[in-house]
Design goal:
alpha+beta, 3-stranded antiparallel beta sheet, 36% helix
């Protein structure tokens, strides 16, 4: 039986991964293995390569050396399938400021080939999950930094990912929202 990204017990692994930008060695011999259903944090000072490593794990940046596997599958040989199984939340949400929050999620859902009505319904549910229902019909430009972080999380969940990569997810969140985010991430991991 072939192991697919959904069936593998290891969500993501990296072995001796390296990435440089000219003479700057952003990631040097990084290795990790994360089991499905767990929450793992990368902690380190600014500039130590956390975001670069996460971009490589997400299949958005190719390592110079080493091996990455997402659910047992190499992004290098099965890039589209791997990216479809990942929810990526960047540190800074790029928004379409004139689109409403619901329109934004619906558009992302449609980019994953969800029918418009299903993408809209799913977007309504995601906005509720991240406590932004009251902003469904508001343009993204009216959101605070913390609210944009929650919209970014909802956007990362649109494709029902098996691996969720969050870059600085609590940045800009107030203390209560940080606690809610932590619980939501734990609940997602349990699912």
């Amino acid at each position: 039986m072939t192991t697919t990204a959904i069936e593998a017990p290891i969500a993501v692994s990296a072995t001796s991964v390296r990435r440089s930008f000219g003479s700057v060695h952003a990631v040097v011999d990084a290795s990790l293995s994360v089991s499905r259903g767990t929450v793992t944090a990368l902690i380190g000072p600014n500039g130590c390569g956390k975001t670069t490593l996460m971009l490589m794990l997400a299949g958005l940046l190719t390592p110079d050396a080493g091996e990455i596997r997402v659910g047992g599958v190499s992004p290098g040989t099965h890039g589209a399938a791997v990216r479809a199984s990942i929810g990526w939340m960047p540190d800074q949400l790029g928004t379409w400021d004139n689109l409403t929050c619901l329109q934004s999620l619906t558009l992302v859902g449609q980019s994953y080939k969800q029918p418009a009505a299903a993408a809209r319904a799913h977007g309504v549910g995601l906005l509720a999950k991240v406590h932004l229902s009251e902003f469904a019909d508001q343009p993204a430009r009216v959101l605070s930094r913390g609210q944009k972080q929650r919209l970014s999380l909802a956007r990362a969940l649109v494709n029902a990912p098996t691996l969720l990569l969050l870059d600085e997810p609590a940045n800009g969140l107030d203390p209560r929202s940080r606690i809610e985010l932590r619980q939501l991430v734990r609940d997602l991991a349990a699912e």
